[in-house]
Amino acid sequence: MFKYKGIKVNYKDFGQKDKSPIVYLHGWGQNIAMMEPIAKPFTETHRLVILDLPGFGNSDEPEEAWDLEEYVNMLKALLDYLGIKKPNLIGHSFGGKISILYASKYDTERLILLSSPFNIKLKTPSLKVRVLKKAKSIPGLGKLAEKMKQHIGSTDYKNASPIMRDILVKHVNTDLTENAKQIKCPTFIIWGDKDEAVPVADAYELEKLIPDSGLTIYEGCTHYAYLERLGQTNSIIKSFIK
């Protein structure tokens, strides 16, 4: 457990400590478990760090409404604590938005963005029913959906604490268009063409904004495309992150 400004941040640090590090950031209302399917296959080839972002999983809620800059500051402090100077970053949704801002400010080896919002067109998500229903429909993820129940219900906007509501509003209303243009590391973007949370049109726009980037669209997949085609996602990670 790591502490940032008195806030406990739960994380896992495993794999090969002397190898290239990959850091995973989950989406809104999620937790470490949602990133493990794209981390565990690399335990023999990389150092792997997954964290519960503050306000989710087993991490504390912030004591005040953090903006994205504060989440990035927390991440930088954690990586400094772990001795990681130039991470490979993989972020889904909210975690992807944090990754965009981090990579625009600090040295990053490579960046993979999974259905990551970056502008202010994102709709306020209603996660409780939709996420659980979708997770249960993905082969092999039924048990994971059960684990998510205790976390996701409390992060739906209507049921969230006042602090997390304020954080969600700040997240939704933060535009990172100019930050995306400043990313210098090689970047790969994965999106589902049936994404209802962040439209696929944003994927094409994001690819144009980030100078050294590539994009793949998973046909028939949703906001959780990276899990719906888990094998393809892990193949991309393997080939893109050396």
- Low-pLDDT segments: 124-129, 147-156
Number of domains: 1
Strand order of the largest sheet: 3-5-4-6-7-8-9
Mean pLDDT: 88
CATH topology category name: Rossmann fold
Question: Considering the protein shown, what is the CATH homologous superfamily?
Answer: Alpha/Beta hydrolase fold, catalytic domain
**Biggest β-sheet: count, sense, barrel?**
7 strands, mixed
Order of helices and strands: EEEEEHEHEHHHHEHEHH
Structural class: alpha/beta
Q: Count the beta strands.
A: 9
Amount of beta strand: 15-25%
For the record, the CATH architecture stands as 3-Layer(aba) Sandwich
Helix content: 25-40%
Which CATH class applies here? Alpha Beta
Alpha carbon gyration radius: 16 Å
Q: Give the terminus-to-terminus CA distance.
A: 28 Å
What best-fitting shape do the alpha-carbon axes yield? globular
Question: What's the arrangement of secondary structure elements?
Answer:
Elements: E1 2-4, E2 7-9, E3 11-15, E4 21-25, E5 47-51, H1 68-82, E6 88-92, H2 94-105, E7 110-114, H3 128-137, H4 142-152, H5 162-172, H6 177-181, E8 187-192, H7 200-209, E9 213-218, H8 225-228, H9 230-240
Parallel strand pairs: 4-5, 4-6, 6-7, 7-8, 8-9
Antiparallel strand pairs: 1-2, 3-5
Helix pairs in contact: 1-2, 3-4
Provide a concise account of the structure shown.
The chain has about 240 residues and is of the alpha/beta class. The chain has helices at about 70-80, 95-105, 130-135, 140-150, 160-170, 175-180, 200-210, 225-230, 230-240, and strands spanning about 1-5, 5-10, 10-15, 20-25, 45-50, 90, 110-115, 185-190, 215-220.
